[in-house]
Amino acid sequence: MKKKGFSVRRPGIIGEEAFRKYAVLIPLIEVSGIPHLLFEKRSGKLKHQPGEICFPGGKLEPGESLKACAVRETMEELLVQRKQIKVLGPGDIYLSPFNLMIQPFIGTIKDYKDTFSTDEVQAVIKVPLDFFRSNAPKTYTSQLIQEPPKDFPYEWIPGGMEYPWVKGNHAISFYQYEDTTIWGMTAQMATSAVRLMEKYHII
């Protein structure tokens, strides 16, 4: 019965179809027996966000699962084989106020040899996990303001052009590790992932 199915359905997200969907892997590797998070520095040749620090990942392709997307992109960007990657579980979804939805997955890469595709990656950066455990990010708040289009039907809403729009806030976080700045969505996903690893005793 459909009625029974409704009571246990997994809620969707209203307006989800307008979001661009991406998936990333938050990779754990061992360096001299010490767990590190692995980041990429995006190639300066890329059109979008050149030189930024990020996790391996990319845009979801038609018919592809988010998990498969994260694994595929990691293989392509870090030149590793599927058997080297172990996905431990999903992280929490990152929703951007700019119609961007990112599903992180926490996983390990075994026997990583510092390989990467120079078409997409300029360098790889390894940060000890303990750095994130002992350092909180510095967070700044950016204000988001409603700006309706010129043809907006103000006559349909109470107050018309004087309607008291609610202003939103967007948190922007930063980590500074040695000479590397990890910021924005990558910093927020790293913070969330480390908390989940601690909560579920992954580390």
N- to C-terminal distance:
43 Å
> Helix/strand-derived class?
alpha+beta
Biggest sheet overview: 8 strands, mixed
What's the helical proportion of residues? 10-25%
Radius of gyration: 20 Å
Low-confidence runs of at least 5 consecutive residues: none
Quote the beta fraction.
Answer: 35-45%
Topology as H/E string?
A: HEEEEHEEEEHEEEH
Q: Can you count the beta strands?
A: 11
| Count, helices | 4
**What global shape is seen?**
globular
Mean pLDDT: 96
Topology of this structure?
Blueprint: H1 2-7, E1 20-31, E2 34-42, E3 53-54, E4 57-59, H2 66-78, E5 85-90, E6 94-96, E7 100-109, E8 121-128, H3 129-134, E9 138-144, E10 168-177, E11 180-183, H4 184-199
Parallel strand pairs: 1-7
Antiparallel strand pairs: 1-2, 1-4, 2-3, 2-8, 5-7, 6-7, 9-10, 10-11
